[in-house]
Amino acid sequence: MHSFDPSRRSLLKLGLVGGAVLATLGGIATLGGDASEAPAPGYLALRAQDLPFLHALIPVILDQALSAERLPTVLPQVLHDIDLGLASVSPALLAQIRELFDVTAGRLTRGPLTGVWQPWQETPPEQVAAFLVRWRDSSLALLRQGYAALLQMVLMAWYGNPDAWAHCGYPGPPTI
Q1: Within 13 Å, how many C-alpha atoms sit on residue 133's CB side?
Q2: How far apart are CA 63 and CA 18, in angstroms?
Q3: DSSP for 60-71?
Q4: Which of 32, 69, 77, 161 is least surrounded by Cβ atoms within 10 Å, i.e. has the fewest?
Q5: How far lies 114's CA from each of 33, 80, 106, 123, in Å?
Q6: Rounded Cα distance, 120 and 157, in Å
């Protein structure tokens, strides 16, 4: 039985192997899916293939911050704010986010990496939550970083919206 050596060298090797695996899976995802770079109609950066994933993800992330009744009216605004944020990032960062979306949407990569084998629009919220926990607690730093990026993207879009402020007791920015 081989034990894990937590030396710097072994961590660097693990990071390189993990990066190579994720890059390979990302390449497979783009081959196995219909990865278009064109934004979806009405969006600046989000693509049509990104939307089912975000529609499944946002309600789970905002579960405690938003009532189910308000979700249908808030979801389009959160998507719009995510889109505006992505439209203003560097091309390199946008390419990384798109690669993250491609890995989660690709028919060949979605199941093994997320534990979600069916299309996102057919995935119950409990399974989306389990995917998030899986990435949050993963031994692969790249999956943990992907989790953090997804969480940050959704939370920044929601809490940047004045509709979210009442829930957390924030009165809004000071006025002069």
Answers
A1: 7
A2: 31
A3: HHTTTTS-TTTH
A4: 69
A5: 16, 25, 11, 12
A6: 21
Terminus-to-terminus CA distance in the chain, angstroms?
Answer: 67
pLDDT tens digits for range 24-38: 555 554 544 455 689
Cβ count within 10 A of residue 13: 12
pLDDT tens for each residue of 37-53:
899 999 999 999 999 99
Would the pTM of this model clear 0.85, i.e. be above it? Answer: no
pLDDT in tens, 10-23: 555 555 555 555 55
Rounded Cα distance between 105 and 98, Å, is: 10
Crossing angle of helices 125-136 and 51-61, rounded to 10°: 80
- Burial class from Cβ neighbours inside 10 Å (0-12, 13-18, 19+) for residue 78 reads buried
Q: Where does residue 157 rank: exposed (0-12), middle (13-18), buried (19+ CB within 10 A)?
A: buried
